[in-house]
Amino acid sequence: MTESSRRWSSQIVLYALLALILLWTLVPIVWMVLSSFKSPDDILSTTPKVIFEPTLQHYQGLFTGSNSLGGYVKNSLLAAGISTIISVALACLAGYGLARSHFRGKQHLSFWIISTRMAPIAAVIVPLYLIFRNLDLLDSVIGLIIAYLTFNLPFAIWLMNAFFADLPVSLEEAAMVDGATRFQAFWRVALPLVTPGIVTTAVLCLIFAWNDYAFARTFSGPESQTIPIAASQLITQTGIDWGKLTAIGTVVVLPMVIVGLAVRRWLVRGLTLGAVKGE
Amino acid sequence: MGKKGERKAMRPSNGLTRREFLRITGAGLAGASFLGISGCGEEGAGGGAAGGDVWKQFKGTTLQFISENTPPTAAIAANLKPFKELTGIDVKITQIELGALVEKVALDFGSGEGQYQIIYADPYQVLAPYYQGLAELNAFNEDDSLPSIPKGTGDFIPTQLDAAGKFESEEELYALAYDAPTMIWMYRKDLFEKYGSQMEQDLGFDPKPSDSSTWDQYYQIAEWFNDNANEVKYGTGHQAKQYDSLMCDFSNILWAYGGDYFENGVEVGRLGSEDPGPAQLDQPKALEAAEFYNKLLSIAHPGSTTWDWSGVDEAFRAGELAMTPNWHEFAAGIETSDLGGKVGYTRLPTGPARAADMYGGTGIGINSGAPEDEQRAAWLFLVWATSPQTQRMGLFSEEGGGTPTRQSVYDMPEVQKAKTRPSDAPNMLTADAVFKAWESQNIGLRPKIQQWNECDTIIFTELSKMLAADKSPEQAMQDAKESFDRATGAA
Amino acid sequence: MSVARTDKDRGLNRLLRMPSFGVRMMLPALLLLAALSIFPFLFIVWMSFNEVSPIGGLSFEWAGLENWVNLFADPAVRSSWVLSAIYFVATVGLEMFLGIAVALLIHELVWGKNLALSLFLMPIFIAPVMVGLLGRFLVDPTYGLYAWVLNATGIFTKNILGSGESALVAVILMDVWEWTPLVTIIVLAGLSSMPGEVIEAARVDGASYWQRLRYIVMPLISGVAIVALLVRSMDAIRFFDIILVTTNGGPADATKIIPIRLYETAFRFFDLGYAAAIGLGMLAFSIVIANLFLRILKAQGLAR
Description:
Oligomer: heterotrimer
Radius of gyration of chain A: 24 Å
Largest sheet of chain A: 2 strands, antiparallel
Strand content of chain B: 5-15%
Structural class of chain A: mainly alpha
Number of strands of chain A: 2
Largest sheet of chain B: 5 strands, mixed
Largest interface: A-C, 109 and 106 residues
Radius of gyration of chain B: 24 Å
Strand content of chain A: under 5%
Number of helices of chain B: 23
């Protein structure tokens, strides 16, 4: 067997495996998308229907009426987006500060930071509820943003610290010798170099906030409901509205594929930079 | 006594009685007649003097109503316009599943937030533990500056008003009966017609579901379907998921066999109790019920242990089952599905002691943590939402609506007509069954106690273990009793 | 120019200027984090020594160590811990194994790498609560696609969520479906940064793929793998959305992992003091696990 034919055959094996993996990932998603176009009777058919008369009724139901999905999407984007921006911005400063400082107990500090992300959700809800009530933040997007900061801020600091720690100090020192202040060295030299890291951190924060259900379930109200809440509201006393549920799933997933494609390159580069040392 | 004084103080300052008030302000009458108060039409319409109208006094207020995702709330949410026109009040409705609702309401009460003025007060998960957080409603009803309940509280079906609205005391009223799902026996009429005589021959009794059918017969019929009918996979299916539904499904049988959760269970169910005493689940009758339930589930559709009420409904509609005990409000969905016209509805079978049909109704109440004016505005919504006209609207609405909680609605000719096919309100096809079920000797009321959430979880978890053959019925009931006693402090 | 600077200068510079600068940079984030976490933490600790009830306004009644004694004495909670351990090892283990395997696979692809990864990533954008509902939809005995396929092929004819073992497997697989891609992207990042020459040299030397994997690739990506492990571990202990909407802990408590037990204690029974104790127990467990992983990371010289 020649080298090239061996490569060929191994590639064939690879693609066969890939097909299996994608089957595992995509069957539920394809079924979800298909179901979102089925009539309720076709959805509940006891033998799965692949050929059916498509209907847009679930999408129409989602976007018309008093409880249009639009409001939920807006709240989700605002809460996840703003909490991500705040987390990443503060984490850039703090991560850099931590990476460039040397003091006793630094390890304890960084462990404390990440340990705040481990707080059990159902237990922290009660004290947070009391805080929010006193600050009048219940049923507000701002409340949700703050709730999401509780888990995204420590995560972002932890990751950004890793990214900055990987950056050789010499570049910033060179800039300082050229007359830059400490902050300018951070702002003009270090920060641009970790752009992939920032994108990575932001995407991961966005995912965690975007997917939250437990906090939103308690803290959101009519004015601040997010997409996962919309999904849970389809669990009614008379059954789950699978048509609308699968329609929401489709509405959420398809744009994300595009976003995923767009940021993938950054994401992988970012993680590369931060996670592995010593290039 | 002090209450009386307060009520007086709440009168409008000009000292008019409510009747005079209504006579002067035509709009009050318009509102009243909208709500189905008859007999005052003569004084007729006429421009309502702004500011004098009891219905318009909270114009511009915004109220929050938190409700479980139920058919009546869906119908109301879709038809809020008349209320806005009548009162000028905006009502925002949050519809969520019951677990999330209880969490939100409890935190709201615990913190005194008053975020939601109008609360869907499940008698067991909200009313019993948190009745102190709900405003007493008679005070509003007797307040002359506020509209009172059209046709009075006596128009509500008495067992429902007691179960959904009161706690421990006959006098105090915390919620108005709002919906009334009740468990009944749903069966495939077409199959019973087809196989009736054959079954009668094989089984030796008339299988036609009726008030005299017994649970034992139900079992035999289900088994017969398992063996003999190809149209359905199984004779019976149940809502036996490790969840509230399992407790509901089992309780019907518990009561039918003469068992109960607590001593004096009927009163603990009707008015509730802060101290129900030791649990009775280890008593022979309860054990007998558990053994029967275990036996019944062993021949039921194996999907039963994953189904809640909607799961079993979907299976029934999909033609998997010949019979199921389920909430009567599912009739609306069944009648518009492929099974429309093929299903019969009757009360649940009877046991050695009685026939019992689990009542799952709920009332709506007012958050006493909300500011006084908002509470009074919320009262307008309560009166409107439970009024005969609104209930009638819900019954016939496209959203499916609920079932009325008032006698007068059932007396309406169009509602009477809907009791037979073809029906504009298919839920009324079950009316004869549920009406009987709501009589005080038939209604099945689970304990209205403050620790019910915990006890509910205990009983459905133990039953789930029994059905999974992790535990014998005897062991499960014994463990349930001990856990109940620990939860209620009776140990 | 920096060449001219001496080590001594640099050291002096750090000593004089860096700490205060560093502190100033960290201050906003740390203050916010402290505000968000210290009060809730102390509050939870306080709750855990009290009997807390929301009935008739939030009330506290000193209970001493009662909740803590219960935490260790309650057999139901103990069985939840055991179950949680199984769930934790199974989900995180499968996700790590599959995540790394898929990353290695995608890394080797010559064509369609981007598309394959984007498709594979899709599940992480679907909220767990929706993943749970979708899973329930797929395994429903009446109309579920997977239930139908398993039944038709005779692989599994019973009711999937109806018996303890299969229900546990099902909720584990739902979690694996959603979160494996997260491990994959993190590991893939590590793979992309590997120095190509080393691998090529090994190939030229005649090392087989498995040999290269064992001796070169694995050591190079072990750092990122542990980062992924840490991220997933934190959430595997915290999250409960999927189980909440599928089995809610049943049947027969077969899926009642500790966060579900906590949730139930807190928001069904409103035994908030006991819930606080359970929550703190979970936190302690997370910290031990995280410490363990960080120690491994450090032992490999990869810690920061």
